[in-house]
């Protein structure tokens, strides 16, 4: 999977940073410098990719 | 209690696996996250680039007068604003007086903040050796996609 960081800057200047395709803690490390350079972190959440993985784990258990 | 026995020919019971974030990191599983950031103007080079992007005169370091006070910092004159905005890049503070919009359209300041954030992202991404593409979105937002060098 390709690794990228998607940044959306709102018309008011607030920024949403989303990491894509990273494994483990690499996603936080990849965007950390950018986040610190931009300003104050208002929120931080794990994305659906995290939960999709949990769902996969559950399905694998059900079929084993 | 707590054990699951598989009956021959039967359906295996559903087992919900709950893994902590730390456990997922150890297993090298895909994790992504979203961070929301309130932009602070602290980089003069990015501020200069933002002014150029908006075709504004470059910021000048100095002291300028607002309606009731003076302030020192990077002075930016926004279109249609009676008083300049003065940016303390050490503290990330923007000092302005537009009298609730009567002395200047607040959207002009929003545009400056947006342009600054875009330019700051571009500068930091280039420093890290990443390539950046930019796209204007219908709602007025600007999307940057950073392809991370050396990524998996």
Describe the 3D structure.
- The complex is a heterodimer of chains A (64) and B (152).
- In chain A, a hairpin with a 5-residue loop joins strand 1 (4-9) and strand 2 (15-20).
- Chain A has 64 residues and is an alpha+beta fold.
- Chain A is globular and about 30 Å long.
- Chain A has one domain.
- Chain A has helices at residues 26-38, 48-62, and strands at 4-9, 15-20, 39-46.
- The mean pLDDT of chain A is 77.
- Helices cover 44% and strands 31% of the residues of chain A.
- Chain A has a two-stranded antiparallel sheet.
- Chain B is α+β, with helices and mostly antiparallel strands and 152 residues long.
- Chain B has one domain (34-147).
- Chain B has a 4-stranded antiparallel beta sheet, with no helix packed on it. In chain B, strands 6-7 form a two-stranded antiparallel ribbon.
- Chain B is elongated, with a radius of gyration of 25 Å.
- At the A-B interface, strand 1, strand 2, helix 1, strand 3 and helix 2 of A face helix 1, strand 1, helix 3 and strand 7 of B.
List strands and helices in order, with pairings.
The complex is a heterodimer of chains A (64) and B (152).
Chain A lengths: L3 E6 L5 E6 L5 H13 E8 L1 H15 L2
Antiparallel strand pairs in A: 1-2
Chain B lengths: L20 H6 L6 E7 L4 H10 L6 E6 L4 E7 L8 E4 L4 E3 L10 H22 L3 E6 L5 E6 L5
Antiparallel strand pairs in B: 2-3, 3-4, 4-5, 6-7
Helix pairs in contact in B: 2-3
